């Protein structure tokens, strides 16, 4: 997959506002997805910049509102797709799933940024819906997940989703892979 092809697919799904299907958590709450640019930036950064989310990210520093707004200004040219997970009952932002075209390939990411929503299966159900969605637009593609070795919960979740260990990346990370290629 090259950047131009990725951006053509992104433009099509973004202009048509195609999003993954909504889902229900273990405790019977309904969640849905919004494109990142259709979310309140301040509320989004509150969950993205929470300490327990940042410590598992490649870049652990908080994102400023200025950085986020610059990101949104250039979003259509970035080889990435970002959806925010929202609670239907309260319309609350609680996490994110994303796909990035990196030097590793099509790389997925996810986080739940509100601790009140941990442990009820949201990350798993969100990723199931997201991966089904990605298969529609990126058929026959492999997906990768770069994860810190100590993030045992994320590694276990990736395994439940069908990712397999692929290789070590330096001392801190492992790369997991799902797909044929």
Task: Give a topology summary.
Elements: H1 3-15, E1 23-24, E2 30-35, H2 41-48, H3 51-54, H4 65-73, E3 80-87, E4 92-102, E5 105-112, H5 122-137, E6 143-148, H6 152-161, E7 164-169, E8 173-178
Antiparallel strand pairs: 1-2, 2-3, 3-4, 4-5, 6-8, 7-8
Account of the protein in words:
The structure is a single chain. The protein has 181 residues and is an alpha+beta fold. Helix content is 33%, strand content 29%. The strands form two sheets. A five-stranded antiparallel beta sheet has the order 1-2-3-4-5, with helices on both faces. A three-stranded antiparallel beta sheet has the order 6-8-7, covered by helices on one side. The longest helix is centred in the C-terminal third of the chain and has 16 residues, at 122-137. It is globular.
Distance between the termini: 11 Å
> Strands of the biggest beta sheet: in what spatial order?
1-2-3-4-5
Unreliable residue stretches: none
Mean of residue pLDDT? 92
Write down how many β-strands occur, each being a DSSP E stretch of 2 or more residues.
8
The largest sheet, given as strand count, sense and whether it forms a barrel, is:
5 strands, antiparallel
Quaternary state of this entry equals: single chain
Which structural category do the helix and sheet elements fall into? alpha+beta
Question: What portion of the residues fall into strands of 2 or more residues?
Answer: 25-35%
Number of helices: 6
The helix fraction, in percent, is 25-40%
How would you sum up the global shape?
Answer: globular
